[in-house]
Amino acid sequence: MRVALGIEYDGTHFAGWQVQPEQRTVQSCLEHAISVVADQAVRTVAAGRTDSGVHALQQVVHFDTDASRDERSWVLGLNTNLPSDINVVWARPVDNDFSARFSAVRRTYRYLILNRISRSAIHNNKMWWYFQKLDEQRMQAAADILVGHHDFSAFRAKLCQAKSPMKTVEKITVTRHDDCIAIDVTAQSFLHHMVRNLVGVLVPIGEGRQPVEWAEKVLQSKQRGQGGITSPPDGLYFVNVEYPQQYALPTVSAFPVVW
User: Fold this and answer.
1) For helices 214-221 and 136-146, angle between their N-to-C axes, nearest 10 degrees
2) Pick from 48, 180, 158: which is nearest to 112 by CA?
3) Cβ contact 79:7 at 8 Å
4) Cα radius of gyration rounded to whole Å, the chain
5) CATH class of the region 2-103
6) How far apart are the first and last CA of the chain?
7) pLDDT band at 39 (very low <50, low <70, confident <90, very high)
8) What would the CATH number be for the domain defined by 106-238?
9) How many Cα atoms within 13 Å fall on the side-chain side of residue 9?
10) What pLDDT score does 161 carry?
11) Domains 2-103 and 106-238 in one fold
């Protein structure tokens, strides 16, 4: 049978999602736990890979197994065998045509910035502390330029393995709540480091070091070197992935509680 899982994790002490030799990764910890509960070796497929330090609140994975367990047993059994920084929220049997990766119709990431003069003892490794004042309205105006179907070569990592730089960004929303700024980005799929590089362009615009039109200039250049920095992984959350209604997968309260 094929089983889908909804998982959350704190990426601070992981070398990313994907299995890597001699590295602590989310995938390796999860597959170990599933193999214990299923009593057989299991491989997982994820909705999206996350980098070292990046968090997830609604990562979806699937795996195939001969083991017969009810949903409650999968959740409780896996969490018993997982470290405290990974948690299975739900489990569902799914049809064999379901793919956590290829069946997804859209994904949403949220980037959190702590915008105040002093650092935080609470949100360390959970938000990007940026002490220069940011204007969220300027950032939104620049973000609007980047919405749509574009060549995002200027926003992809050098080692990105995507076959094409063409992506369709459905929505970018920049909102402020007191000292916190949230940047939400929704698309069917993303390039490697794409969201972090988008943030790296929006922040200097919000600070006033670059004009709003700079976002268009970077986009049209198609050159990574023309963009801003790659923002730190600490503030990035994989918050949601959506699938066709036929799979009837659960939804969760995906946003960090600080918001």
Assistant:
1) 30
2) 180
3) no
4) 19
5) alpha beta
6) 38
7) very high
8) 3.30.70.660
9) 30
10) 82
11) yes
The rounded distance, in Å, linking the Cα atoms of 50 and 43 is 17
For residue range 6-24, list pLDDT tens digits in order. 999 999 999 999 999 999 9
| Annotated catalytic residue, options 10, 51, 184, 234 | 51
pLDDT band at 254 (very low <50, low <70, confident <90, very high): low
| pLDDT of 94 | 96
Q: Which residues contact 60 (CB under 8 A, 6 or more apart)?
A: 4, 5, 6, 7, 46, 47, 100, 104, 241, 243, 249
pLDDT tens readout for residues 142-201 = 999 999 999 999 999 988 888 899 999 999 999 999 999 999 999 999 999 999 999 999
Instruction: Indicate the domain borders of the chain.
Output: 2-103, 106-238
Average pLDDT for the chain: 94
| Residue 51 annotated in active site | yes
Q: Are 146 and 167 in contact (CB under 8 A)?
A: no
Q: Which residues neighbour 133 within 8 Å (Cβ) at sequence distance 6 or greater?
A: 115, 207
Report, in this order, helix, strand and coil percent for the chain, each rounded to 5.
25, 30, 45
Of 113, 125, 99, 120, the residue nearest 47 (C-alpha): 99
CA 126 to chain centre: 13
**Residue 243 identity (one-letter amino acid):** Y
Question: What pLDDT is stored for residue 158 in this prediction?
Answer: 85
